[in-house]
Specification:
two-stranded antiparallel ribbon, mainly alpha, single chain, 2% strand
């Protein structure tokens, strides 16, 4: 037990430090992050000292409950479909089309961008939206000679709030909900109103925060983009739409969500390759899409899952659940999960809390799960450590010489995040 505790603590500390200082190395044009290696090394130590191989394989491949393989398949499949559309320039063209149609008022631009990011996040992934639109926002604001800070902060917060509404909006949603066999539609029934109320409150706060900076008039400039491949874009949007519909109804037909997303991705790749074969062109979009997939999340999730498995074996996660008790469940699980996300990142936090929720009393378990999901999403914009996207987001701003550091992130994150978290957790009580 002591070895598992020490190794898990040191691994989490290592993940935190490598994330704060953005430690990575480059091989040719590829950047390799170190955080997942720390998680993998910690998992290997635990595997050789505290777990048997049979215990590990059994937990990794079991048919029900927490199965990280199925969850990873669901997340990676949905990410690849979104990346495919991004490689075709769909998001950039859509953003360009939207932004150039606002008038000279920054308020209109601010509202438009917030709605735009919120809607896209619902159907794709918050991380994809943040990493895709951030460079575009920087280019646009530079050309229009306006401060990018209001739009960057709004983008990041909107993406990590409206990602709560659907199960596919965030890998943490997928992990926690899928671990307890919560269907797409059941998830939506509970999270729709809390997400809506939280989004409205935080938008009002954002407007108050940036009202002075948004008074300067602008002249929107259209950014020149490469011509879009319409046949493949239509194909990508069709696959995404059908996949989303099937995910919605999957609970009624007992269709595994991971299988729906995997088949959808397979259909997209096969039809794309047929298109390239018929047009006698190179399948560059498919290759780039596959190369851009966040594969590092695989060893990271499995590594953190292994650590949690060891802690669960020795009764640590059950002790935490007992300590939390049955009173004030929404706020206990919601606040502690958000805080934990900013200590160890929201993905390992979700792995940890999936086990803690599993030991919670059955009468409060659902509330504990949804509260933890809220904490994993809103906790992501309280500090850069809250999510991997936060670390990557800050590195993009640094690359473009935008002065926005850790303390700036923390200031805006706390001002918006704390009331947002309280609103979301309070409104959750209406449904569970």
């Amino acid at each position: 037990m002591l070895v598992a505790l020490v190794v898990s603590s040191l691994t989490c500390l290592g993940v935190i430090l490598t994330s704060i200082f953005n430690i990575n190395f480059k091989i040719k044009d590829s950047t390799i992050h170190v955080y997942w290696m720390i998680a993998l090394v910690g998992a290997l130590i635990v595997l050789f000292t505290s777990l048997s191989l049979s215990e590990w394989l059994s937990a990794l491949t079991k048919s029900g409950g927490i199965n990280p393989i199925k969850i990873l398949v669901l997340f990676l499949s949905m990410s690849l479909i979104s990346i495919f559309l991004d490689e075709l320039g769909f998001f950039a063209h859509l953003a360009n089309w939207t932004l150039v149609r606002v008038n000279k008022s920054q308020i209109s631009l601010f509202v438009t961008l917030y709605i735009f990011v919120s809607v896209l996040t619902m159907f794709t992934s918050n991380d994809i939206i943040i990493l895709t639109l951030t460079p575009f926002i920087l280019f646009f604001c530079k050309n229009a000679r306006i401060s990018p800070i209001p739009y960057l902060v709004s983008e990041f917060i909107a993406a990590n709030t409206w990602s709560m509404i659907f199960i596919i909006g965030n890998p943490t949603n997928i992990y926690l909900a899928s671990s307890f066999n919560i269907s797409f539609i059941d998830y939506f029934k509970v999270m729709a109103i809390p997400t809506l109320l939280t989004g409205l409150v935080e938008f009002a706060i954002l407007l108050l925060l940036f009202k002075n900076q948004l008074k300067t008039p602008i002249i929107p400039n259209q950014i020149k983009l490469e011509k879009e491949n319409m046949p493949l874009t239509i194909l990508g949007l069709s696959v995404l739409g059908i996949c989303t519909i099937l995910l919605v109804i999957s609970g009624y037909f007992s269709l595994p969500m991971y299988l729906i997303s995997l088949i959808s991705l397979g259909v997209l790749i096969v039809l794309s390759l047929i298109y390239f074969l018929c047009t006698r062109t190179k399948p560059k979009v498919v290759v780039k899409t596959l190369l851009r997939a966040p594969y590092e999340i695989i060893p990271f999730i499995i590594g953190m899952f292994t650590l949690v498995l060891a802690l669960e074996k020795f009764g640590v996660t059950q002790s935490i659940a007992n300590f939390y008790g049955n009173g004030g469940t929404s706020f206990v699980y919601g606040l502690t999960s958000a805080f934990s996300a900013n200590l160890i990142n929201n993905i390992p936090m979700s792995v940890l809390y999936s086990s803690i929720c599993g030991f919670a009393n059955e009468s409060i378990r659902l509330r504990a799960i949804y509260s933890s999901i809220i904490g994993s999403n809103i906790g992501a914009f309280i500090s850069p450590l809250g999510a991997l996207a936060g670390i990557m987001w800050l590195s993009i701003l640094k690359k473009y010489d935008v002065h926005f550091g850790y303390l700036d992130f923390l200031k805006y994150g706390c001002i918006v995040g704390v009331p947002s978290l309280l609103v979301a957790l309070s409104s959750l009580l209406l449904f569970i």
